[in-house]
Specification:
6 helices; single chain; seven-stranded mixed sheet; alpha/beta; 9 strands; Methyltransf_11; Rossmann fold; Methyltransferase domain-containing protein
């Protein structure tokens, strides 16, 4: 991750956690805790790594299911919140500060499962991240993650018309009126993500695009942007399940 991403999170972490107020659980789609996807239910006794653990809501949830969880995040402010949350719930989670593209703090073959939810839009170099993730996973280890669907972000929230090009990838800048630093994210095409996984030695087992064509199926999530009509037209989330070959 880049210095500008780290700076943005250090400035916004407390606001994010206080204002968004995420529930403890795995929030795969960005619209609330949704374990109905049944992606990480059988983790008891397994060594699990969360890449970009943020405030620790996902890590704590898996620790409460009996997993041995380690969470890594770039932001010290996020990690302070995560440690407080774990203490409040008496959850045993090892939190470490670090970059998901450099997992040098962990030995080869250290984990059974690696996962994250809505993190990779902040990561420029997915290839480096996936190679490092493959290295720290044991043979046959699972890698499960969700990210914003690149198609959804192209639609105007009001008109639903496509703006920009799907083929424009890389650095995206969102000005922040009340901050001295802009929000920087990175757009990845579906093929970029898939090919980076394969190139790192993973076998992609499933891709999911959770959603429904019925606007009434969408409840308001924690982000303050409830767009059921648009969500019923385009997938907002892309999920990958892969296994270390």
């Amino acid at each position: 991750m880049t210095e500008e991403v780290e700076e943005w999170w250090e400035l916004t972490a407390r606001w994010f956690q206080d204002d968004i107020d995420l529930d403890v659980g795995v929030n795969w789609t960005g619209m609330g805790v949704d374990d109905d996807l049944r992606l990480l239910l059988d983790v008891a006794g397994k060594d699990v790594l969360e890449l970009g653990c943020g405030g620790g809501q996902c890590s704590v949830a898996l620790a409460e299911r009996g997993a041995n969880v380690t969470g890594i995040d770039l932001s010290t402010e996020q990690l302070d919140f995560a440690r407080d949350l774990a203490d409040e719930r008496d959850a045993d989670v090892a939190f470490r500060q670090g970059d998901v593209t450099d997992l040098g703090a962990f030995a080869d073959d250290s984990f059974d499962v690696a996962f994250n939810a809505y993190v990779f839009q902040w990561v420029e170099d997915l290839t480096a991240c996936f190679r490092e993730t493959h290295r720290v996973l044991r043979p046959g280890g699972r890698f499960v993650f969700s990210m914003p669907h690149p198609v959804y972000g192209l639609a105007d929230p009001e008109s639903h018309e496509i703006e920009g090009s799907y083929f424009e990838t890389g650095r995206q800048v969102t000005p922040q009126e009340d901050l001295d630093v802009d929000m920087v994210t990175y757009r990845h095409r579906v093929s970029d993500v898939h090919n980076a996984l394969v190139g790192a030695g993973f076998r992609v087992e499933r891709m999911l695009e959770p959603g429904s064509s019925d606007p009434d199926d969408y409840e308001e999530g924690p982000w303050g942007e409830h767009r059921p009509e648009l969500l019923a037209k385009l997938p907002s989330t892309l999920v990958f399940e892969a296994r270390a070959a």
